[in-house]
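Standup notes
- DV: blocked on the single-chain target, sequence here:
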Amino acid sequence: MAEGERAWSFAALRSLVVVGATMAGAMTACATAAYAPCPVPWNGPLPDDAFERCKAVLDRHADRLAIADRQPLRLQTDWVAADDVAGERRWTVLGDDSIAPVGLAVVVELRCLREPWLGAPGWGAPSGDPFVERAFAAELAEALSSRRP
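- DV (later): unblocked, structure below
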């Protein structure tokens, strides 16, 4: 191999290492970003039957709950097939004690099917789905404010 070819190969290798290190750093930064639940727009104390109302709303999105705790309030579905993407969503309602009186917050996680160039398809890392979360929070607020028969 000529001297010029070796120099070019070393420069190309160094460039690849720099690009790879930069991408790894960027992916690490993205993976460690904090995610805050979406608050449900609600003023005042929650109704006495808030747990049942929240459960009724979640029942519209999933067949069954994976977690159903009354104190502290936490409801979570299993992973459910999404209609709009090749993926699954998990819906969570949490008691939000960061405000007084205690309110509610929601998290809707989305994990998409990933097909790598090599290897078997699998699920990507779950991430927040903020547009669906806001709609879900509004749906819960409406259910909490409606009169019970």
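- Follow-up: Confidence is low (pLDDT under 50) at residues 5-30.
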